[in-house]
Amino acid sequence: MTTTEIKTNNRATTTAPTARLNFAKTAPKVFRAVIGLDAAAREGLDPTLVELVQIRSSHLNNCAYCLHMHTTDARKAGESEERLHMVAVWQEATHFFTEKEQAALALTDAVTRVVDAGVPDAVYGRAAAHFDEEELARLLALILTINTWNRIALATSKRAGTDER
Questions:
Q1: Among 58, 72, 140, 162, which residue carries the largest CB count within 10 Å?
Q2: 74 and 48 in contact (C-beta within 8 Å)?
Q3: What is the pTM of this model?
Q4: The CA-based dihedral angle spanning residues 65, 70, 71, 77, taken in that order and rounded to the nearest 10 degrees
């Protein structure tokens, strides 16, 4: 779905979205491949950590669709409202997160914003200190996957709250 912009008083406002392609139906083989990568990445990782990473990446990418989906999933899994609210500002609220979660969130920030400064050695090293090589590879795959999902949702204008999985 795209949005139509209307200028009023030199400000752009948006109107109702117009239809865009349904990625899952239009490219089912590609869609299933991303689902497969997502499932493989999650395997062996703490489900709470998975949701925190997905929420953080969705914040950084301004993906309301994925943010809504993953905060809903996290709540269903028992995550506290307090921690969900702190993910966006985790660097200023480190006491809400374990050292391992902080390392994963820092890596999520770096990989999601890779264009800004790459993935600094210190950030990678911090993650490597908390995750064995297989876990670290899965964490990287998880970060890559949620960034892919964010881009699919944004490019196809998925609407937050519809939770069309």
A1: 58
A2: yes
A3: 0.86
A4: 150
pLDDT in tens, 131-164: 999 999 999 999 999 999 999 999 998 888 776 6
Query: Which residue type is seen at 52?
Result: L
| Location of structure tokens 């239809």 | 19
Straight-line distance from the first to the last Cα atom of the chain, in angstroms, rounded to the nearest whole number: 16
